[in-house]
Structure to design on (573 residues):
């Protein structure tokens, strides 16, 4: 199916704005990829796990479930292998496969927003915010599952929304296929089947035949997951770490109602603040466009809620000194990507966070709180539409609201029991954008947004500059790290089992299913640490070689050191 069909959007026959938007988004993505420079045959983060499965598939022609992975992943393994066919296995080829799906995800985001009748400029801003999001751009330059899953997730929603609007069975089938492909990357894809089933009933009404059809659709997704797990077990492919999202939710529920409620509220706040920070340019623009149509009462309660919510949250965060980032995963205190070397894992002594950057994170936290307030408002307004009797032509269809609300809520419940990773929030962000549009529709005469557009564009540019610069620096220092490790192994003939080269290096060369970390050593499959790679000096080691880094941001790692254990040195405890 071509781009013309994917983005064959409602409202108006003039497709020139859509064509221009598609070209802008594609150009933006290509330029960002060039500036980041994704080249280099080395793993990043956890993608060495999936890289091994791709290499096994190429070498043996047989799929192997990643030994250290929890996801279904089979679709992505074959997709990555396809990009390795021309020149053989490499992590550069795998990153290209993710970048290709990343572009699909950006265009699909634009298409989804246009499908629910967002104006081209609004849809363009929403899609650009995803493209220039540091979490999205950072993950797109790896072989992690997040961006491929996101792209198929949003593509499936386009087919579902359009299929329900036009009542086209073949679009339901296309949506099912995209949802199945997403499920074969991550088990979280089950939420798409549940969301569509609920929306189908809202669209068709509560009749036995319609309910049976919706249930059959949901069961087909559950059945696909079930038979995939049976196939993995029967063929000996299932890994010890393979995940079961329904079982994870059960653990939370079994902990008790109160514990579950507290966990739910804490996670909801964290998700809303992260999402609010990244989506603030979009959320503010949508709210400002509708501000002139609000009645005096609406202005009082909406603005009042936002001020009170922001004030209470800010005082609480100030009191307990809680500031973003809440986890050092994709987003770290100094940029993009986890710093999985010995010196930074056991403390930031060799990489202190500048005072100005700490202050910037506090500002971003406040912006995130403001955005979180807007998200909660739009969730309330969208939910209220499910029970509204409005029948005006501009009012969104209840089934579209049901589809996005149910999908958002079930997805949140699915990631709730997981260890919090910011990249798990990616599929929620286009859904929040859609809910903002649906929640603000049918609100009367729109206010011209000329005054607020520059603010949104400035924030978008700042986000983009940070995302490109931070992602470049992350790949650059890893590229230099692996050059240093290759030199150590090839020129100095040091075997991998004598090196602590960081989590990705030791995982790629020395992974063991059963491994007990030794006291004083890193936890990532270190046999002997006669040599270590670090950003700065480590007690008990002497510097053998130093590599300078050409970073784009004014903060972050400045060097990579190859360290050799001193004969009389002692390791830090």
């Amino acid at each position: 199916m071509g781009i013309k069909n994917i983005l064959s959007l409602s409202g108006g026959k003039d497709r020139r704005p859509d064509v221009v938007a598609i070209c802008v988004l594609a150009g933006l993505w290509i330029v960002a990829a060039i500036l980041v420079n994704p080249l280099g045959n080395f793993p990043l983060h956890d993608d060495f796990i999936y890289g091994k499965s791709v290499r096994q598939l190429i070498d043996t022609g047989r799929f192997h479930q990643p030994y250290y992975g929890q996801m279904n992943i089979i679709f992505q393994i074959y997709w990555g292998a396809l990009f390795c066919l021309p020149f053989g296995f490499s992590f550069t080829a795998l990153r290209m496969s993710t970048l290709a799906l990343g572009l699909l995800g950006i265009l699909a985001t634009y298409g989804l927003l246009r499908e629910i009748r967002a104006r081209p400029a609004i849809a363009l801003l929403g899609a650009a915010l995803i493209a220039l999001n540091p979490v999205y751009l950072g993950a797109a330059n790896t072989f992690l599952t997040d961006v491929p899953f996101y792209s198929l997730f949003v593509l499936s929603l386009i087919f579902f929304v359009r299929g329900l609007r036009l009542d086209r069975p073949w679009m339901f089938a296309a949506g099912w296929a995209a949802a199945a492909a997403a499920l074969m990357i991550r088990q979280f894809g089950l939420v798409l089947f549940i969301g569509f089933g609920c929306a189908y009933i809202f669209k068709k009404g509560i009749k036995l035949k319609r309910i049976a059809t919706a249930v059959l659709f949901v069961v087909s997704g559950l059945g696909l997951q079930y038979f995939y797990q049976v196939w993995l077990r029967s063929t000996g492919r299932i890994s010890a770490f393979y995940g079961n999202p329904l079982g994870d939710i059960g653990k939370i529920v079994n902990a008790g109602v109160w514990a579950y409620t507290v966990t739910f509220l804490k996670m909801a706040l964290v998700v809303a603040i992260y999402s609010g920070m990244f989506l603030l340019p979009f959320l503010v623009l949508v709210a400002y466009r509708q501000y002139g149509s609000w009645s005096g009462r609406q202005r009082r309660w909406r603005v009042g809620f936002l001020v009170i919510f922001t004030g209470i949250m800010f005082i609480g965060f100030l009191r307990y000194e809680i500031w973003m980032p809440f986890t050092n995963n994709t987003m770290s205190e100094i940029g993009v990507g986890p710093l999985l070397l010995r010196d930074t894992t056991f403390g930031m002594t060799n990489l202190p966070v500048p005072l100005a950057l700490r202050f910037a994170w506090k500002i971003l936290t406040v912006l995130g709180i403001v955005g979180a307030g807007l998200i909660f408002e739009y969730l309330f307004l969208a939910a209220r539409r499910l029970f509204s009797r409005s029948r005006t032509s501009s009012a969104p269809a209840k089934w579209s609201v049901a589809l996005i609300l149910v999908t958002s809520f079930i997805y949140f419940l699915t990631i709730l029991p997981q260890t919090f990773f910011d990249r798990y929030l990616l599929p929620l962000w286009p859904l929040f954008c859609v809910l903002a549009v649906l929640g603000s529709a049918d609100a009367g005469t729109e206010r011209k947004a000329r005054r607020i557009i520059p603010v949104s564009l400035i924030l978008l540019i700042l986000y983009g500059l940070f995302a490109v610069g931070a992602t470049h620096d992350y790949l650059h220092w890893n590229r230099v790290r692996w050059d240093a490790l290759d030199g150590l192994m090839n020129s100095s003939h040091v075997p991998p089992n004598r090196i602590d080269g960081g989590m990705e290096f030791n995982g790629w060369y020395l992974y063991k299913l059963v491994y007990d970390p030794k006291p004083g050593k890193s936890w990532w499959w270190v046999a002997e640490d006669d040599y270590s790679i670090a950003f700065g000096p480590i007690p008990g080691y002497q510097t053998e070689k130093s590599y300078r880094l050409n970073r784009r941001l004014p903060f972050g790692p400045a060097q990579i050191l190859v360290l050799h254990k001193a004969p009389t040195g002692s390791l830090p405890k």
